[in-house]
Amino acid sequence: MFNSFSLLACLCLLTMAPVVSTAQPLPDSTIAQLKAGIAGFKDRYHTPGMVVAVVHGKEIVFSESLGYVDLENKVAATIDTRFPILSVTKTFTATMFMQLVQRKKIALDEDIKKYLPEYKGEIKSATESGISFLQLATHTSGMPRNTPADVNFAKQIDRWMLNRTHYESLEPASKKDLLRSLPYIKKVYPDYQLLSYGDRLYSNLGYSMLGIALERAAKQDYGEYVVNNICKPLQMTSSGMGTESFGSTVVAKGYYFDDSLQQFLKTPVFHANSALYAGGMYSTARDLAKYISFQFDTSAAASKVLSLKNRRLMHSLRVGWKPLYPIVLHEGGMVGYRCQVAFYPDLEIGWVILTNTTDFEFDKMNEYIGKLVSAVYRKPSPVMAKFVGTYRLQGGYDSLRIYMKDGQLYSTYLEKELPVHPLVANGYNRFKAQARGSYNIGYSFVANDTDGIKALVLGQLTWVKEKE
To answer: What is the DSSP letter of 323?
Structure first.
């Protein structure tokens, strides 16, 4: 949103929640640094309350809850406090999309016209609008950021931020008004416009269009579908639809720190309305930790929710998520709140950050947490012996040998031209051989399922390791 940034019953028994496991705990020194850093970021960005949870595999290995989620009544933040997760909701909408693709209800690149006839598109066709589900899910449709029906919503935000105009709530357009606006909306950007990797032409409108089309394709209310097909199977029992307190569901209150007054001001509540599909969910740090664990869970239960292949497709092709190597993430923000979910797929670690403040920058905090935690869980240096062997170029055109001498690796590749120097480690399963001056030849070994080696990528070619 706003950015200044009974199968189910069986699945519930196969919980994918972070549980007590044999995962390596964080050292006390790392925990101390995390606590000190998080407290520092809380003060720096003036958030009344802040909850952080760090995950490794299926386990929460660290959590910290600071401050208040209701300043007036001194209600302390906890790992189970519900926060609006705003645009992180988009990742759930995207997961719904991939589920329906996996279940063959829709096709990945199917045109949305069948399910969203209100959008006329810019081509004259009774069956096509010129926009696919995939384009909406990857922010490549060319749609504007928001519908013009949200003009009052935009003015509400600006008036509150500029003048503190009194509003009980900030409200995007109703679903009815959004649908009425669709025939008049034109693309702002070209289809699949080339951008820097990790960037995108972000569209809340596109995700609302996607969500409405998906619920029609599923023939089920969006909220009911997400809760029943994603939250319940993942044991996310404190997550659901809504961005404000209702009934027995209490959601953290939002605040804005006024520099001139040096005090917190309570912000109007946010009614999602047509933005439900793009930013209308609430959750907790504990539940979102389960959601992170799901991203790299290889169990049969996880695959029933969504296959690992499709989850990886989402991470790498920006379906819902934003890849920012080496992490994958999504932020959420609105007047009164900022949140983020981030994870390293390769290391199976991640973290949740939930705050109830309007302005909060995550880049430095991601760097801080990532550096501390990845150092603990980074894979150990590879055992050199596993690289030794003969590698044959695909098609049998050439071969080379990796051998060991005095505990170091050597290569026969261009052995007449290159000096006899050992290969130097240059990353996990990666080495380099110094050739001339600053020019190096890189060796990137490809692991098999048992962490042995099956191939070598060298000189932009693939060399397959022969069985011994």
So the answer is: E
